[in-house]
Design goal:
The chain has 248 residues and is mainly beta. It folds into 2 domains: 34-54 and 151-244, Jelly Rolls; 61-140. It has 1 helix and 16 strands. The protein has one helix spanning 16-21; strands at 28-40, 45-46, 61-67, 79-85, 91-97, 103-110, 112-118, 128-132, 135-140, 151-153, 158-170, 177-185, 192-200, 204-215, 220-227, 232-244. The longest helix has 6 residues, at 16-21. The model has no long low-confidence stretch (mean pLDDT 92).
């Protein structure tokens, strides 16, 4: 049986976390996910660019990147890298280049889109929506050049260990509060709460987990929030390390 051990390669001379980030620890990967929702109201929403509860593809599909710029031709040549998981939950990515019509479609199919970003030297002049069949699975908001999605799906063959969660609120309205939670859905299951916190206006919840929480392969993770009032800005981020599962 192969066991992927978390043994530092250079002892005390370099922190273990830095070695993981430098890909020096075999079959260990780190991920930092961050999201932002500028308008959380009285209905629960995922913390991501588009708002509302995030919808996942039912099967692996090609993704079309489309600019909403007033003159789509201005974004001809914009390069976008879409990263996620294929039909078997393996990590995949593809870089596409917008045509004169302001669109580009991947040849790779995606069961999950974990993130996307502008990968070239040309910045878009509008939001970039990443869609299939009328459903938006990611958005690169103008000026950000990167998706802001507090969600992630663990790849096949790995177990993730959630070690840090941070949630912050902001509003100009007094006497409001926000209830935020991180939820997980294991393969074949339903979303259930992992952590829940109520915050006042301008509140921050920061959890550094002394004992990281184990999250199995193919599990969807996301941060959601609901407000007692309106117009609440919510940011959320979490970090994980995921390690290759033992093999016979």
């Amino acid at each position: 049986m192969t066991v992927y051990r978390s043994i530092s390669q250079v002892g005390t001379f370099e922190p273990f976390e830095l070695q993981v980030a430098r890909s020096q620890i075999f079959e260990h990967k780190n991920v930092f996910k961050f999201g932002f929702n500028p308008d959380v109201n009285g209905t629960e929403e995922t913390i991501w660019d588009v708002g509302g509860i995030y919808a996942y593809p039912g099967s692996a599909v090609a993704m079309t990147v489309t600019t909403d710029a007033g003159t789509p031709a201005n974004d001809n040549g914009v390069q976008v890298l879409v990263s996620g998981l294929d039909a078997d939950y393996n990590e995949v990515s593809e870089e596409v280049t917008l045509a004169g019509s302001g669109t580009a479609t991947t040849t790779q199919t995606f069961l999950r889109v974990n993130r996307a970003y502008v990968s070239g030297s040309q910045a878009p002049t509008g939001n970039l929506n990443i869609t299939n069949g009328g459903t938006t699975y990611a958005r690169i908001t103008l000026g950000e050049n990167q998706t802001l999605m507090a969600l992630w799906t663990v790849p096949a063959g790995y177990t993730a260990f959630l070690d840090h969660v941070n949630i912050a609120t902001g509003t100009t309205n007094a006497n409001q509060y926000v209830t935020a939670q991180i939820v997980q859905r294991q393969l074949g299951g339903v979303f259930r709460v992992m952590m829940k916190q109520t915050l006042g206006s301008g509140g921050v919840a920061d959890f550094l987990l002394r004992y990281p929480i184990s999250v199995p392969e193919k599990t969807d993770l996301e941060v959601r929030a609901i407000s007692s009032g309106s117009n609440n800005l919510i940011s959320a981020n979490f970090s994980m390390i995921y390690i290759k599962n033992e093999t016979d």
